[in-house]
Design goal:
With 370 residues, the chain is of the alpha/beta class. The protein has a single domain (5-360), classed as 3-Layer(aba) Sandwich (Rossmann fold). Helices cover 33% and strands 18% of the residues. The protein contains twelve helices and 16 strands.
Length: 370
C-alpha cells in the first residue's frame, strides 16, 4: 500500500516581516520529511519560477529562497545552486542568437541577491551556452514526439527543490509546481511545447517525469501570502489573503492539488468580480489563439504556421485541471494527501476547502488529459 503524500501548511500574515516568513517556510519544509534525504556534502539545485524581471508574486518569493538555502547549509549541504531560465520574452537563445541575460533578470526581480546573501551560487541556463544541454525522453508513450533538451547542470546535482509561486497563467490556466518545469527547457524544446496546442498542457506535466527531474526531486514549496489571481504570469490582480499560506510537499502533484485549491479560494474570496471579467482574465477567452500569437512573435511566421490552437478549460476542482490530470496518469494514480500543520492551523473553512481540493476526482468529474 502506497504511503500518503504529506502536504505541510504553515500560515503567514499578509504583512509579516521577512524573518517571520522565512521561519514559516523552514517549518513547512521540515514538517514533510525533516530533510531525511540530505547527506553531508550533497549538492542541491533550487529551481525558481523566474519567468520575468517582475517581483513576487509574479516570480518566486525571495524569502522562500533565503530560508531554504540557509536550512540546507545548516543541515550540511555542500554546493547549493539557485537558478532558472527566464521566459523567452525576456531571454532567448538559439545557435545564432542570445537576446537578454538570465542573470540580469534574476538581479532585477530580487532572486539573485537573495540567493547570494544566503550563501548560494546563482546559475541561469543560458550562461552555460546553447550546447550545455542534453536530450532526455519519457520512459513511456507521451505527447512529446522526440527528446527534450535539459541543462547539463542536472548531471552534477544530487537533489532538486522546486520553488514555484501560486498564480493564474494566461496560456496554461495556472502556474504552480508542475508548470515551473518549463524553465528547464532549452528554447527549441519550448518552441515544440508551444506549437503543439493539443499537447500543450499534458506536455507540461510530462516534463516532470523526465528521468533526471523525476528521480532527483525532493521538495516542492510555495510561499503564497501573495497570489496572482488573474491574467498571469507577469501581471494581474494581486490578492493578499489573511492568512496567507506556505505549501510544501515532496510529491509535486500533491503540492499542486493544494496550491490550485488555494488559487481557486483566492479567486473566489479575495478577487473583486470586476477583475474576473474576460478582458482582465483572458485565459477565459481564447488561450490557444494567444499562444499562437506568442509563437509567431518569438519564433517567427514559419513556427506560427506549424502551430495548433486549443480551447481553455476552467476546472471547478483541482483534479479537473489538465496538467494535473496528466500528472496523475504518469504517477499511476492520484495521491492520497495527508495535510500536516506546521505551527498555527489555518482557519477551519480554509482547511476544509484544501482537504476537499486534495481529494481524487469522482469518476463522473474526471477530465481526459489528452
Amino acid at each position: 500500500m502506497t504511503a500518503p503524500a504529506p502536504v505541510a501548511l504553515a500560515v503567514v500574515g499578509p504583512h509579516d516581516p521577512p524573518q517571520t516568513l522565512e521561519t514559516a517556510v523552514t517549518a513547512a519544509a521540515l514538517a514533510v520529511d525533516d530533510l531525511a534525504w540530505l547527506q553531508p556534502g550533497d549538492s542541491v539545485f533550487l529551481k525558481l519560477a523566474a519567468n520575468s524581471p517582475h517581483p513576487y508574486p509574479a516570480t518566486t518569493a525571495p524569502e522562500a529562497v533565503s530560508a531554504l538555502v540557509r536550512l540546507l547549509k545548516a543541515r550540511g549541504a555542500g554546493r547549493v545552486v539557485v537558478g532558472d531560465q527566464p521566459g523567452v520574452a525576456h531571454v532567448y537563445q538559439d545557435q545564432k542568437t542570445w537576446r537578454g541575460r538570465g542573470l540580469e533578470v534574476l538581479e532585477r526581480n530580487g532572486l539573485a541577491p537573495a540567493a547570494r546573501a544566503a550563501g548560494a551560487e546563482v546559475h541561469c541556463f543560458d550562461q552555460a551556452g546553447w550546447g550545455a544541454f542534453h536530450p532526455e525522453s519519457l520512459e513511456r508513450p507521451g505527447h512529446w514526439s522526440g527528446a527534450v533538451m535539459l541543462p547539463d547542470i542536472l548531471n552534477d546535482i544530487d537533489h532538486l527543490i522546486v520553488l514555484p509561486r501560486v498564480s493564474r497563467h494566461v496560456l496554461a490556466g495556472a502556474t504552480l509546481g508542475l508548470k515551473a518545469a518549463v524553465g528547464w527547457l532549452r528554447d527549441d524544446s519550448r518552441r515544440d511545447l508551444h506549437q503543439d496546442g493539443q499537447g500543450f498542457q499534458p506536455k507540461i506535466a510530462e516534463i516532470n517525469w523526465l528521468p533526471s527531474l523525476r528521480d532527483k526531486l525532493r521538495l516542492c514549496l510555495s510561499l503564497a501570502h501573495r497570489v496572482l489571481t488573474t491574467f498571469g504570469p507577469d501581471q494581474g490582480h494581486v490578492a493578499a489573503p489573511d492568512p496567507g499560506l506556505v505549501i510544501a510537499s515532496p510529491d509535486i502533484l500533491a503540492h499542486d492539488l493544494a496550491a490550485l485549491g488555494w488559487l481557486l479560494w483566492c479567486r473566489t474570496h479575495h478577487t473583486p468580480a470586476a477583475e474576473l471579467i474576460r478582458l482582465k482574465d483572458p485565459y477565459r477567452l481564447w488561450p490557444g489563439f494567444f499562444n499562437r500569437i506568442f509563437v509567431g512573435r518569438v519564433w517567427g511566421l514559419a513556427a506560427l504556421a506549424g502551430s495548433r490552437g486549443y480551447v481553455g478549460y476552467e476546472p471547478e476542482i483541482p483534479s479537473q485541471d489538465r496538467v494535473l490530470a496528466r500528472a496523475a496518469e504518469l504517477r499511476g494514480g492520484w495521491p492520497e494527501v495527508e495535510l500536516r500543520i506546521a505551527g498555527q492551523a489555518p482557519p477551519a473553512e480554509i482547511l476544509g476547502h484544501l482537504r476537499r481540493a486534495c481529494q481524487p476526482p469522482p469518476a463522473e468529474a474526471q477530465v481526459a488529459a489528452a
